């Protein structure tokens, strides 16, 4: 049988599959990082930051968060292709192509925000102008987490076992997207959105352009996390030892904690002045929840909106908890 003909399929696609549903959701929720975030919102963020009394250490905390997000989005854009090659379902492959495209869009958003907001504000306030690629913004734990994720993804090109696939999902979809990224959103919402959780952030600086961009990104990554959780749950039900999930995520949690926790080289507290230890606690709770759902093969994967719900705030468009 050639790759073009397949007598086992009446049609090319199975529209009722889990992956097909997520693919349609990605198409429906498409957004443009250059058009859907209005120039006026970014200009408003520039003005509010410029006119604020934000100190240079706190501003550098914001830059560190955005630099880490941008680098992370770039890394996962580069590293996801082996998963697409490893999967044998066209519906799953189609969904993963939307992931790669969406990670690229996220990379573009953070680059645009740095160019249009961060650099102009630094210049206007007389702060040092820094690059989002400056090594000061990347802790050892952060770099090791993404190095391990790259290794796990590229291992799929040589190891076709289900165990290798579970490890790749645990690194990419769960540790990076579900825990590290979600914890970062939690911090940004707390520091720069009036609807975010109350973590004692300094001031009431509302950056609507940043928050709107993050809301689009979270919508995308809810699908990514849900897909990964569904795939791991299916693989565990098919016989993969659930201890692989527990051990892999537990092994990666200290790296996530280092990435979001207190920076010994920084002054002025964490993001927006909030306590970074609250973010470490949040990340730890998120890991425990993911493990509980995935290793229980009877548990239902929460809806996309719940997977990216920000606990503790009036998060429009999302209800409940995951």
Question: What's the average pLDDT?
Answer: 85
Largest sheet, in brief, is: none
- CATH class reads Mainly Alpha
Enumerate the spans where pLDDT stays under 50 for 5 or more consecutive residues: 312-322
N- to C-terminal distance: 44 Å
Along the chain, the helix and strand elements come as HHHHHHHHHHH
Class of secondary structure makeup: mainly alpha
CATH homologous superfamily placement: Ribonucleotide Reductase, subunit A
Report the portion of residues in β strands.
Answer: under 5%
Shape: globular
Count of strand segments: 0
> What would the CATH topology be?
Ribonucleotide Reductase, subunit A
Helix content: 55-70%
How much is the radius of gyration in Å?
Answer: 20 Å
Helical stretch count?
A: 11
| Second rung of CATH, namely the architecture | Orthogonal Bundle
Into how many domains do the coordinates divide? 1
Protein name: Ribonucleoside-diphosphate reductase
Organism: Halosegnis rubeus
GO molecular function: oxidoreductase activity
InterPro entries: Ferritin-like_SF, RNR-like
Structural description of this entry:
One of its GO terms (molecular function) is oxidoreductase activity. This is Ribonucleoside-diphosphate reductase. The longest helix has 36 residues. The chain has a single domain, classed as Ribonucleotide Reductase, subunit A. The N and C termini lie far apart (44 Å). It is mainly α and 322 residues long. The chain is globular. Helix 3 packs antiparallel against helix 5, helix 5 packs antiparallel against helix 8 and helix 6 runs antiparallel to helix 9. It contains 11 helices and no strands.
């Amino acid at each position: 049988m050639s790759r073009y003909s397949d007598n086992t399929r009446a049609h090319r696609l199975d529209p009722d599959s889990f992956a097909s549903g997520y693919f349609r959701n990605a198409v429906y929720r498409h957004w443009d990082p250059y058009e859907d975030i209005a120039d006026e919102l970014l200009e408003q963020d520039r003005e509010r930051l410029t006119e604020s009394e934000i100190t240079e250490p706190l501003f550098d905390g914001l830059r560190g968060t955005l630099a880490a997000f941008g680098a992370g989005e770039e890394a996962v854009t580069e590293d996801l292709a082996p998963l697409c090659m490893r999967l044998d379902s066209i519906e799953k492959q189609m969904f993963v192509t939307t992931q790669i495209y969406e990670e690229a869009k996220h990379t573009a958003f953070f680059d645009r925000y740095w160019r249009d907001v961060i650099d102009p504000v630094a210049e206007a306030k007389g702060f040092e102008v820094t690059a989002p690629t400056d090594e000061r913004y990347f802790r050892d734990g952060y770099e090791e987490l993404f190095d391990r994720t790259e290794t796990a993804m590229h291992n799929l090109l040589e190891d076709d076992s289900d165990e290798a696939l579970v490890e790749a999902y645990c690194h990419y979809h769960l540790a990076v997207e579900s825990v590290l990224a979600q914890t970062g959103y939690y911090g940004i919402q707390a520091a720069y959105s009036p609807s975010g959780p109350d973590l004692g952030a300094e001031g009431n600086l509302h950056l609507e352009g940043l928050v709107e961009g993050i809301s689009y990104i979270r919508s995308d990554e809810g699908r990514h996390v849900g897909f990964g959780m569904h795939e791991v749950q299916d693989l565990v039900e098919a016989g993969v030892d659930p201890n692989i999930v527990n051990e892999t995520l537990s092994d990666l949690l200290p790296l996530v904690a280092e990435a979001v926790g207190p920076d010994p080289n920084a002054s002025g507290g964490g993001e927006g002045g909030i306590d970074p230890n609250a973010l470490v606690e949040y990340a730890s709770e998120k890991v425990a929840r993911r493990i509980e759902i995935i290793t229980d093969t009877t548990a239902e994967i929460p809806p996309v909106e719940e997977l990216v719900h920000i606990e503790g705030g009036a998060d429009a468009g999302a209800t409940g908890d995951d």
